[in-house]
Amino acid sequence: METPTLYAYYRSSCSWRVRTTLNWKRIDYETIPISLIKDEQKTPEYSSLNPLQVVPTLKIDGVSLTQSIAILEYLEETRPEKPLLPRDPIKRALVRSLVQAIASDTQPVTNLRVVKYAGEERRDEWLNYWMTYAFQRIEVQLATTAGDYCVGNEVTLADVCLVPQVYNANRVNVDMSKFPTIQRINNKCLELDAFKKAHPHRQIDCPDELKEN
Ligand SMILES: N[C@@H](CCC(=O)N[C@@H](CS)C(=O)NCC(=O)O)C(=O)O
Description:
Blueprint: E1 5-8, H1 13-24, E2 30-33, H2 44-49, E3 57-60, E4 63-66, H3 68-78, H4 89-103, H5 112-118, H6 123-145, H7 157-171, H8 180-189, H9 193-198
Parallel strand pairs: 1-2
Antiparallel strand pairs: 1-3, 3-4
Helix pairs in contact: 1-3, 1-7, 4-6, 4-7, 7-8
The chain binds glutathione.
Glutathione binds near residues 41 and 113.
Keywords: Isomerase
GO biological process, one term: glutathione metabolic process
InterPro entries: Glutathione-S-Trfase_C-like (IPR010987), Glutathione-S-Trfase_C_sf (IPR036282), Glutathione_S-Trfase (IPR040079), Glutathione_S-Trfase_N (IPR004045), GST_C (IPR004046), GST_Zeta (IPR005955), GST_Zeta_C (IPR034330), GST_Zeta_N (IPR034333)
């Protein structure tokens, strides 16, 4: 079987979700960096793989898959070992609710093209506002679902989505002391190899000044 190829940007939270899931499920893959700073997501070559002109794209099983959550669900359905969705339908719904709170309600308003349109001079204030807003609500939701991780004591897709969002929040100085549950879960996930290996600072396209081993 051909090795899957992930088209990704080191700092993209959506790319990080896919990296963590591939690592968690012990799927070997190659990375092809797509620089969002250089607008490489808009080149004709890349657009032919991903007409949405965003990262990530995962080439796997003879197809190019787009949309990180669709990719995570595909990996879960085709590689069910080391599951990231609970068996219990209620818990699954709780996981998917948190996934959407991050992937559908939070990341889109903090995305590069949205921030550019809102105005570069407002960038950090805009990002800080929307991530603080989201975390205030997610922290309350986690009070009813969390154990060691977002939903109970097993790692799920909710954790996979939460960790990159916390990294982004830290970049714009969101006051994370207001969100103790989110912080605790984030720190616990970052002790796990799958999350550590997927960290932006360990990617081949990470600039030298940020790179970690
Ligand atoms: N819903 C998409 C969002 C993809 C997305 O917005 N990716 C960002 C990086 S996290 C991107 O490529 N942004 C480029 C741009 O806005 O031009 C997914 O989950 O894959």
